[in-house]
Amino acid sequence: MKHKVPVSTIMTKNVVKLNVSDTLTKAESLFKKHHIRHIPVVKDKLIIGMLSYTDLLRISFADELDDEENTIDITIYNMFSVEQVMTKNLTTIFPETTIKEAAEILSKNEFHALPVIENGALVGIVTTTDLIKYLIDQY
Fold it and tell me: For the CBS domain, which residue ranges apply (predicted)?
């Protein structure tokens, strides 16, 4: 296995983002449209939080899902803002952070995505799925 490979080689560079002023309805739409589970939240170009699909399920009382449409009642989303639901105290990494370092951070914490920043701006995201795909490619 290669050593000291930077996360920039496996990170998603065209990151789907939410603005802090976006709605949770928009967030749900983006999760489903792009088949993703984590969306960085930005204000201007600075990352200020991370919203996960699990965060949405947590506030929506998952048993409230409409079986026919598999969507959450929009009324619940209107009760909260993205800023209220997102995780705020983020751990971030840099493009030159090694894949091993990123894997160590994720394995020690209870989150599954790391925003990648450069000069204060969001330039990518690395998820546990990215790490698993990288591992599979090694064999």
Answer: 11-68, 86-139
Is there a domain that residue 1 lies in?
Answer: no
**Domain with 105 in it: what CATH number?**
3.10.580.10
β-pairing verdict for 121-127 and 113-118: antiparallel
Bridge partner list, 76: none
pTM for this one?
Answer: 0.85
**Buried residues in 20-41 as b, exposed as e (16+ CB within 10 A):** eebebeebbebbeeeebbbbbb
Local mean pLDDT, 10-residue blocks, the chain (139 residues): 87 95 94 96 91 89 51 74 93 96 93 93 95 91
Within a 10 A sphere around the Cβ of 123, how many other Cβ atoms?
16
